[in-house]
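Support request, priority: normal
Reporter: lab tech (M.K.)
Component: structure prediction queue

Hi team, I submitted a job for Superoxide dismutase [Cu-Zn] from Drosophila guanche yesterday, and the status page still shows it as pending. I've pasted the exact input below so you can check whether something in the sequence is tripping the parser. The sequence length should be 78 residues. Please let me know if I need to resubmit or if it's stuck on your end.
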Amino acid sequence: MAEIIGRAVVVTGSADDLELGANDQSLIDGNSGERIACGIIARSAGIMKNFRICSCDGVSLWDERNRPLAGKERSQKL
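Reply from support: The job had stalled in the queue. We restarted it manually and it finished. Here are the results:
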């Protein structure tokens, strides 16, 4: 599993022909068609296991947008 974490994945409209096709596009991208979706494979915590809390001041990452970047007001309750 560790060898795939952080890798990119692209879903295309057709299967890759492994550069064996007679089409000029085959040498570029395997003639696999348009890109439909893409993403990066990442690890995830279990359900309700990732609290997204900053270890420096205890502010949840979801609440950071409502807080100043530094100073005593950052760790005060809103």
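The chain has two domains: 1-43, 46-78. The longest strand covers residues 35-40. Let us know if anything else looks off. Ticket resolved.
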